Amino acid sequence: MSSKLQLTTLAVLVSAALPAQAALYKVVEVAPGVTGNEAYGTAIQPSGNDASCFDSGAISATCEGYKLAGETRNRPDGFSYREEVPFAMDNSFGYIEDDYDGFEDYCFYQLGYATCEYWASDRWSSWYNETYSSNTPNSLAFIEGSAEKPSGAINTVINSLDPSGQPVGNFSTSSKRNEAFSAVTNSTLTSKAQSRAWASDGTYTVGSTSSKSGISGERYYYSSAPAIWSASGFVSIPRAGGYEVDGDYYAQGSMRDFYIDSAGGKTYGVGYNNYSDQHMNATIFIGNSATPTSATWSSALIYNAQVDISGDNINSNSVATNINKNLVVVGQAKRSGGFPQNGAASNRLFIVPDASASSINASFFYGGIFFDGAGGEMGGINNFNEIVGRIDSENHREYDGKQRRQRAFIYPYGMTPKTDSSEETAITARRAIFKNKAWLLDDLTNGGSESSNNNQYRIYDASDINDAGVISATAVKCSGGYDSTSHNAYCGDGNGTEKVVAVKLVPIAGADASAIQPRSYDSTATERQGAGLGFGALTILGLFGFMRKRIK
To answer: How far is CA 410 from the centre of its chain?
Structure first.
């Protein structure tokens, strides 16, 4: 083994001197129980009023017992199994209908990579399989090792788990590309040509419906609308502007999450809606009743994240992804390929501290691990205002270059305008565990009694977090451990095989800020060679740009 990748004598001595309980999280791998080359964690079971798993008296069995939902993959999605339209922005279907050339054009005009031929080939092959070939199942969903397959399902995704741990998502069949499923069933919903479900409280579910099935002759050229439903009521949210069809562009909208403010007599939803010029803009939906299906709904544009800023299409699309009980909203805005920032047409992450404010403005993450123009993917937010997702961990130029690597993060945001003052002590104490700042999660899994187990994983994505602090995530695994504890350590001197696995990050009871031992970087390590990356790792690198959308 190359000596440059060995732990230095100093590092060994420092490691030996650390407290036995160093690190904030234990990495718990979850076996999918279904076939697939890769496994991804997509959601974690809500913890309700349970105690924080950081508490010194937290019970390990309880904290490790929160169920993780996930999915497997054998190949990248050609057209996301979740989104209303291809690449979350192609509302004219102009890219996707042009087959391989369309994929390459999308990459060239909206991502700008120097590797678009490879990027397009990988995804076109998957889309070809679905549309022109055998449509071999690719996304198999599971909850803690048990398959979750609705009747007739081909591909299934789980977007969240409701308070009872029931899955919320959508699946494809031979007659519909997307059909919503959750514990809340509604006859109006099932009559729709397509539907998707994103979040549910067990009584109400939110998502979207579409005007065509997305199959065969109805594969393209359809509109979509945000929706909320109960067992007895269904509401389709009207467009905020534009037309159902305007030239080659079709209206699109989706509600991704919601919160019922019973005391205030309102319901707040988040997602995106259709605006003038058929722009897909991040939106806060406001219902004037705490009974969502009886409410009159309006749409509030999230400024700074919209497509058109001062007459230029700065962003290609944007979406608000989550809202919590403190009315904190998080989301993402994809920088247009024609207006890259800091060398990348990135998917930038934002926060709106108060959904009820008279002026709704997005503030993009900046400072610390969030450098100017950093791109990523929003995961979720809990009621402690702790935000998770993934973010660029490299800042080289992507435009006319290669994709940046990304890693999972946690951002303890702290108090916000609508956070109840009675919860200030708890939120402040939780934030102090993280030294009041954002971290790459790999820095919080290093050292102490869990170090040997945790060093088998580098956390790529964090998709969800519950109030107990347990995180659903996806990791790249090197069985037996990486060659060192550094961020960029090799697996088997660059010849090992890495695997993409679903994991839970479980807080270590009693851990506090003193347990944090950031990982170092091997300064002499060079770029990994393909032989050192398994199929999963290569695919996961390809997924870096898939959700990030030069104007065509």
So the answer is: 13
Both structure tokens of 527: 């770029």
Q: Which of 326, 226, 229, 216 lies closest to 285, judged by CA?
A: 226
Sign of CA pseudo-dihedral 282, 286, 287, 290: positive
Closest CA relative to residue 183, chosen from 202, 170, 196, 157: 202
Which of 246-255 are b and which e, b meaning 16 or more Cβ less than 10 Å from the residue's Cβ?
eeebbbbbbb
Which residue is associated with the tokens 């996304």? 139
Q: Rounded CA gap, 473 and 157, in Å?
A: 15
* DSSP code string of 38-101: EEEEEEE---TTPPPTTSTT--HHHHHHSPEEEEEESS--SS-SS-SSGGGT-TT-TTGGGHHH
Asked if 42 and 67 touch (Cβ cutoff 8 Å), the reply is no
pLDDT values of the chain reduced to their tens digit, one per residue, 552 residues: 333 333 333 333 333 343 444 799 999 999 999 999 999 999 999 999 999 999 999 999 999 999 999 999 999 999 999 999 999 999 999 999 999 999 999 999 999 999 999 999 999 999 999 999 999 999 999 999 899 999 999 999 999 999 999 999 999 999 999 999 999 999 999 999 999 999 999 999 999 999 999 999 999 999 999 999 999 999 999 999 999 999 999 999 999 999 999 999 999 999 999 999 999 999 999 999 999 999 999 999 999 999 999 999 999 999 999 999 999 999 999 999 999 999 999 999 999 999 999 999 999 999 999 999 999 999 999 999 999 999 999 999 999 999 999 999 999 999 999 999 999 999 999 999 999 999 999 999 999 889 899 999 999 999 999 999 999 999 999 999 999 999 999 999 999 999 999 999 999 999 999 999 999 998 754 444 333 343 334 345 444 333 222 333
First to last CA, the chain: 48
Find, among 243, 283, 285, 282, the residue nearest to 268 by Cα: 285
- What residues are paired with 257 via a beta bridge? 270
The CA distances from residue 499 to 28, 42, 207, 370, 538, in Å, are 15, 17, 32, 27, 10
CB atoms within 10 A of CB 536: 22
Most distant CA pair in the chain: distance in Å?
Answer: 68
Cα–Cα distance for residue pair 359/296, rounded to 1 Å: 20
Distance CA 316, CA 334 (A): 6
> Which candidate, 253, 247, 280, places its Cα nearest to that of 269?
253
Nearest-angstrom CA–CA distance, 198 and 159: 5
Distance CA 214, CA 35 (A): 26
Residue 447: other Cβ atoms inside 10 A:
25
